[in-house]
Amino acid sequence: MRSVGIVGIGSYVPENIVTNKDFELFLDTNDEWIISRTGIKQRHIAPKDMPVSELCYQAGLKALEDAQIAPEEVDLIIVATITPDYAFPATACLVADRLGARNAAGFDLEAGCSGFVYGVVTGSQFIATGMYKTVLVIGGETLSKVLNWKDRSTCILFGDGAGAAVLQPVKEGFGFLGFELGSDGSGGALLSQPAGGSMYPASLETVEKNLHTLQMEGKEVYKFAVRVMGEVSLKVLKNADLKIEDVDLLIPHQANIRIVDAAVRRLGISPDKVVVNLDKYGNMSAASIPVALDETFKSGRIAEGDIIVMAGFGTGLTWGACVLKWTKVGLEV
Ligand code: ACO
Asked: Whose CA is nearest to atom 30 of ligand 1?
């Protein structure tokens, strides 16, 4: 098996910022409640005419530029999203077309906020086995399009954005060292967008009942998240024969500062090794982790050889974590 790493990263968020104060104008909520219960101060929201493929295209382009790789060299594009442009065709195919990645296969991957981790784990298998050399993985969401803007317990939590990573073979001992993925469909109803699929095809009734918007049992998801974030991070370290002391950086899914804090306590990791940017972006689902990774790298906080853990949880229910030894130098193979 070849070693696989991230040789290019990029991210994109729409310009428009919605602050907590903005919600006070049309919802029974306030800045103090939102900050104390979630840690979120603002989020970026895409304009009505901007689909998720546009965010993914922008992030993907930046990642390819960062890796200095031409679109024609990409063998596969995976877009992790729960807010695709269409039920079909796949957003990955639309993004490949925009990028000019005409030699790339493409498919979407649906694992909610664990989507980017699922994506890099899936993409890296093609490279590890020698089947492909270059895989572009993008986590992108426009959850703003499926929120019920009258539901104060959900609409304040989410933001739009996309983050991308170019995967290629890297020198032995670097790149992905281990992963852990899981799911539990019995909790599917805790976080869903019920209508529009084969269970509840779109109808006047589904629209009237608001079933095309995100529905969440916040307290139950919270309890699940607190439990699983610690567990999956410890498991992935065990799989890679590493200890928490070996970790230089933890990039958790950015849903709620209280969930991050609980995971930090459970893991016994120093908070200064934990990336938090949810105050600026809210929960961007599959985009949260790659946007945080990109920002952290660009800030100069990641060095060659650093051990990085990325861990997420989300609808499904799903959870996933991967650990990598950082290098951005691809191997000529
Ligand atoms: N402003 C003011 N009050 C509010 C708001 C708001 N925006 N939202 C809810 N409240 C009220 C409730 O109505 C309730 O009032 P009541 O006591 O009079 O009934 C009170 O605040 C407490 O509500 P809770 O739901 O108990 O608040 P909680 O402390 O659990 O926080 C929250 C809610 C933030 C949603 C929390 O449960 C949470 O973060 N859950 C996890 C969500 C999550 O991570 N989701 C993403 C999953 S990832 C993916 O795949 C997309």
From this structure: 219
